[in-house]
Structure formats: C-alpha cells, structure tokens
Design goal:
With 99 residues, the chain is α+β, with helices and mostly antiparallel strands. The protein contains 4 helices and 3 strands.
Length: 99
C-alpha cells in the first residue's frame, strides 16, 4: 500500500509541474511614455482597461514617466492584445511583447 501512495504522489507532483509550465505567462503589455497624455488619463486607463487599483495604476504611471516605458501587465497574448488595443484607442502608446 505504501508503494502505491508514493507512485500516486509522484504522478501528482509531475502533473502539478506540467500544469504550471503551461500556465507561465510569456508576454508583457508595455505602456510607453509620451508628452501628450496626462498622469490622470493614464491612471484612469489602467484602472478601466487593466483592472488595476488606483494605487497600482498611479505607481505604473510614475514608472512609465520616469523609465520611458513599463510592463503594466503580464499574461497570455490573447488576453493582453485586446487590452493593448483599448489603450491604443485612448491615444496612449502600448505594445505586447514576448519576454
């Protein structure tokens, strides 16, 4: 009986590793700094499009401003691309990039 439990546990651990590897996000949603959009507009956009909290969006906006760009979200391309398009529709430069 002990041998069966060890084999079962080993299979479960292997399954957990396989699932984890398949769920690893490999894309970033990058928002780029510009001289046109205000902090408030970028913050509002991040809250509405990326579901950021106000504080998270504010921190991202400062990083975008001071670093020139910032990865505001990580995830699957099929999830990030529509977000990128929504940000672009608001006049803010954004890209989805593989990392």
């Amino acid at each position: 009986m002990q041998q069966w439990t060890n084999t079962s546990e080993k299979n479960k651990q292997q399954f957990d590793v396989d699932v984890l590897e398949k769920n690893v996000s490999s894309y970033n949603l990058i928002v780029w700094n510009d001289e046109v959009n205000t902090f408030d507009w970028v913050i509002e956009t991040l809250v509405e499009v990326c579901n950021h909290t106000e504080e998270q969006a504010e921190q991202c906006a400062f990083l975008i401003h001071f670093k020139g760009k910032y990865a505001v979200k990580q995830g699957d391309y099929n999830i990030l691309k529509p977000m990128c398009n929504s940000i672009l529709d608001r006049g803010i430069n954004a890209t989805v990039e593989k990392f």
